[in-house]
């Protein structure tokens, strides 16, 4: 009797949509998109971004959902069903997702650490700690800023370079354990538990973003940031990097190629209308990016204005103290005027000020564009500490980061677990709960490596190289497979079977023509960039200087980068070769058997 | 007559002598800087001669408190080089010999000892009443026995553990209940497991095993 137990399913289509939204709307929307917007000409960046969404993002998203829903299997099984030689595509997706699982939860661990430390009367990153003999502040903190000190020294206890290993940071390890336990709690019963969790992880971040938007625009100076962001600099559109970054951002923001979308869609009912859902999720993802960047820029504007005014205050005090003028002669508005005045009237005394006189520039403050963990944990926490009732805003902010991160983590883990649980030899010997527990435990133990003193450098390596290049390759092979090897006609028939109507020309043109061309262009660009870039480098934190220094990777680290890239990409040709050999052996074996019966 | 002339000279000379002792960058003197508007804003009082006298009195008090034996007086605190910033220099003379200055180190110790009292006398703080060269000692950090973050962490991880155990136990109980239900009627198990799906609608019928393909390949 060859029937299996019925596959688990989402309770209703809304759970599926929310799961996709929760997965796609992640930390990248908050910390990568605003940076790109700022780098590539503010409001003008929206043009390449939205264009790439239409040409690249939505069609590929649609394709992955279609495959998952049709095949009703995780990525390995689905691609093997499409073409036995290309089962390696699914395997490559699983390997890449595994790398992502390992390092992504470390970000959640940091968010937990910051969240727990927000429950104090003075936020620990607001002031420098005093040194041992109570005469001043700790030196490293004086050279850097308190927020940087808290992140690099107290949170990470970072070493000077990737070669200097240290022990595990116990606080980080505990937070990572908690993060993995929560992930297990969310997935322990499969889609039944995940389906309920995504109601919360998909919607609550929007609530926090709205609260932050209201708080952000009412802060003093926020309008400077928003104005700066939205002033379009159209000349940036002529720069090819703008278009490439727009395409890359759409690509990674939607989470294509990891196998998560295939896994989610495999739990759908056969006739679910994924076409509408694909468009809805992509639109929601992009609008969230734009919304989050408004919030980010109002916070930036507040922080820049605060720093600018603090700078002016320091200059004002310096002038008052050096020239012994009464306190109310110089105010913040006429500091600049007074500098010129004093330079004219007391030139020798003015030159004695020398280097202590800072130049305060609002534009320069706004120009300091940061992305990634630096934005989330350093720049944002610096802005938060200056807000009134900073503990409340800090707690809200880190809860939002946690929900965004956890939502994406769910997708990552399900992308690994679904194909594994589809494999017969695993599903026969262990239940889903045991499999889930083992995967979480395995990732936790390996992830402890990222909590060591040099862990942040390995984290950056995984973040920059673990998933970027391999994904482009995987999705390129996916599109070519579906459109040309499987055939766009067969795909069309499958979609008609599921949805009841044929593919209209938009999907056909995009999937068969435009998207592959764009992907190939991106792919070539990455290779050229990598070759031209020379030795890969990273930012090492220098204790003495109190800032990050560009350092080259040592040879063994470079070899490891190569291994990261090769391990996922090689799955495709190796699996094809293995399948070919197996088929040839099977064919020759059958021939031998038939020969023997005839002869007998 | 001579005594009267000498007396007059002393009266004139004493302040002149005092001026020689107290000057800008005096080796045994300190510069004081006061920021009233920053500290008090609208409630700032005016800095006048009475306030200067109050300062002399406070410093005399600080010296008395530190040395405890000698009797300092307001005349022993000499002020000079006043500016509109509100900053001035001061030196401290010994009560026994008005031409001798108390060394800088001793003055510093006296100020450090009574810094809090001096600040409060003028409604100011370490930052707004500055003795240039005397750095305020910073408050010692409060080190609680258990760091507060660990407490919050303990609460959250406890809740998560309880959640996981509850879910595992509930599914275990569900499985046991199903097994008990099965032993009563062995047929139900196979019927319940398969739900036909047709056109997206779940059919709750029973599976007709007449059409199961038990033997996909007929045995020869």
TrEMBL record, chain A:
Any one Gene Ontology MF annotation carried by this entry is: L-proline transmembrane transporter activity
Query: Is Nucleotide-binding a UniProt keyword of this protein?
Result: no
Biological process (GO) annotations held by this record are: glycine transport; L-proline import across plasma membrane
Q: Which UniProt keywords apply?
A: Membrane, Metal-binding, Sodium, Symport, Transmembrane, Transmembrane helix, Transport
GO CC terms of this entry: apical plasma membrane
* Bilayer-crossing regions: 12-31, 43-63, 84-106, 168-187, 199-223, 243-267, 279-300, 395-417, 438-459, 465-488, 509-528, 556-581
Question: What domain of life does the UniProt record list for this protein's source?
Answer: Eukaryota
* Keyword Cell membrane found: no
Q: Which residues bind Na(+)?
A: 24-25, 29, 253, 285, 404, 408
Its family remark reads: Belongs to the sodium:neurotransmitter symporter (SNF) (TC 2.A.22) family.
Name by which UniProt lists this protein: Transporter
Protein's gene: SLC6A20
TrEMBL record, chain B:
Q: Localized where? A: Cell membrane
Please classify the protein's predominant subcellular localization into one broad category: membrane
> Pfam family example for this protein?
Collectrin
* Signal peptide annotation: 1-18
* Keywords tagged on the record: Cell membrane, Glycoprotein, Membrane, Phosphoprotein, Signal, Transmembrane, Transmembrane helix
Q: Write out the GO biological process terms.
A: positive regulation of amino acid transport
Collectrin-like domain span: 26-220
Q: Which GO terms describe its cellular component?
A: extracellular exosome; plasma membrane
Topology in the lipid bilayer is annotated as: Single-pass type I membrane protein
**Membrane-crossing residue ranges in chain numbering:** 149-173
What's this protein's name?
A: Collectrin-like domain-containing protein
């Amino acid at each position: 009797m060859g029937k299996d137990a019925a596959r688990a399913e989402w309770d209703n289509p809304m759970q599926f949509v929310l799961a996709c939204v929760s997965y796609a709307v992640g930390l990248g929307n908050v910390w990568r998109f605003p940076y790109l917007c700022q780098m590539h000409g503010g409001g003008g960046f929206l043009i390449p971004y939205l264009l790439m969404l239409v040409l690249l993002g939505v069609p590929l998203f649609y394709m992955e959902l279609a495959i998952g829903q049709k095949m009703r299997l995780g990525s390995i099984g689905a691609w093997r069903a499409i073409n036995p030689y290309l089962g390696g595509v699914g395997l490559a997706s699983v390997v890449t997702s595994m790398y992502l699982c390992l390092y992504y939860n470390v970000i959640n661990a940091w968010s937990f650490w910051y969240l727990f430390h927000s429950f104090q009367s003075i936020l620990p990153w607001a002031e420098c700690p005093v040194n041992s003999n109570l005469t001043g502040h700790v030196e490293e903190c004086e050279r850097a800023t308190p927020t940087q000190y808290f992140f690099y020294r107290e949170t990470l206890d970072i070493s000077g370079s990737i070669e200097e290993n240290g022990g595990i940071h116990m606080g980080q390890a505990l937070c990572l354990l908690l993060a993995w336990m929560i992930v297990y709690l969310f997935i322990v019963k499969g889609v039944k538990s995940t389906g309920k969790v995504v109601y919360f992880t998909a919607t609550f971040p929007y609530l926090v973003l709205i609260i932050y938007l209201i708080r952000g625009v009412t802060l003093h100076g926020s309008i400077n940031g928003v104005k700066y962001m939205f002033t379009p600099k159209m000349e940036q559109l002529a720069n090819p990097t703008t278009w490439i970054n727009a395409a890359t951002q759409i690509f990674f923001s939607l989470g294509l190629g990891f196998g998560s979308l295939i896994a989610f869609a495999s739990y759908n009912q056969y006739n679910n209308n994924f076409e509408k859902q694909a468009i809805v999720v992509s639109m929601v993802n992009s609008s969230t990016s734009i919304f989050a960047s408004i919030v980010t820029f109002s916070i930036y504007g507040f922080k820049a204005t605060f720093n600018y005014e603090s700078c002016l205050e320091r200059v004002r005090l310096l002038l008052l103290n050096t020239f012994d003028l009464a306190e109310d002669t110089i105010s913040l508005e006429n500091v600049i005027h007074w500098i010129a005045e004093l330079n004219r009237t007391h030139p020798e005394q003015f030159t004695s000020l020398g280097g202590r006189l800072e130049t305060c520039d609002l534009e320069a403050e706004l120009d300091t564009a940061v992305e990634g963990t630096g934005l989330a944990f350093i720049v944002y926490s610096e802005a938060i500490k200056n807000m009134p009732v900073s503990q409340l805003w800090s707690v809200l902010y880190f809860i939002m980061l946690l929900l965004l991160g956890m939502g994406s983590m769910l997708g990552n883990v399900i992308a690994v677990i679904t194909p594994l649980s589809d494999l017969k030899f695993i599903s026969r010997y262990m239940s889903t709960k045991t499999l889930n527990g083992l995967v979480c435990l395995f990732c936790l133990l390996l992830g402890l490596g990222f909590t060591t003193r040099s862990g942040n450098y390995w984290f950056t390596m995984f973040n920059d190289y673990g998933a970027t290049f391999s994904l482009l390759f995987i999705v390129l092979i996916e599109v070519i497979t579906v459109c040309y090897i499987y055939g766009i006609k067969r795909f069309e028939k499958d979609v008609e079977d599921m949805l009841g109507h044929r593919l209209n020309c938009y999907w056909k043109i995009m999937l068969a023509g435009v998207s592959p061309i764009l992907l190939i262009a991106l792919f070539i660009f990455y290779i050229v960039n990598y070759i031209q870039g020379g030795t890969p480098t990273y930012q090492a934190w220098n204790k003495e200087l109190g800032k990050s220094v560009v350092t080259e990777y040592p040879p063994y680290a470079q070899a490891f980068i190569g291994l990261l890239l090769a391990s996922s990409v090689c799955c495709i040709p190796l699996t094809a070769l293995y399948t070919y050999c197996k088929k040839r052996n099977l064919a020759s074996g059958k021939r031998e058997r038939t020969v023997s019966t005839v002869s007998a | 007559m001579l005594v009267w002339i000498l007396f007059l000279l002393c009266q004139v000379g004493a302040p002149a002598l005092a001026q020689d002792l107290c000057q800008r960058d005096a080796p045994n003197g300190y510069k004081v800087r006061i920021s009233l508007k920053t500290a008090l804003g609208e409630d700032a009082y005016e800095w006048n001669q009475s306030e200067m006298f109050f300062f002399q009195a406070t410093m005399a008090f600080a010296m008395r408190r530190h040395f405890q034996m000698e009797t300092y007086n307001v005349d022993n605190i000499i002020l000079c080089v006043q500016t509109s910033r509100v900053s001035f220099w001061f030196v401290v003379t010994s009560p026994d010999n008005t031409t001798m200055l108390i060394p800088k180190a001793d003055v510093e110790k006296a100020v450090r000892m009574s810094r809090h009292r001096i600040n409060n006398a003028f409604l100011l703080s370490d930052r707004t009443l500055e003795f240039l060269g005397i750095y305020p000692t910073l408050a010692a950090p409060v080190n609680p026995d258990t760091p507060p973050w660990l407490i919050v962490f303990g609460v959250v991880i406890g809740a998560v553990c309880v959640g996981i155990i509850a879910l595992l136990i509930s599914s275990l109980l569900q499985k046991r209940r199903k097994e008990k239900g099965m032993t009563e009627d062995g047929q139900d198990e196979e019927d319940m497991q398969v739900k036909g799906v047709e056109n997206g609608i779940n059919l709750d019928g029973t599976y007709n095993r007449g059409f199961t393909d038990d033997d996909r390949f007929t045995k020869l």
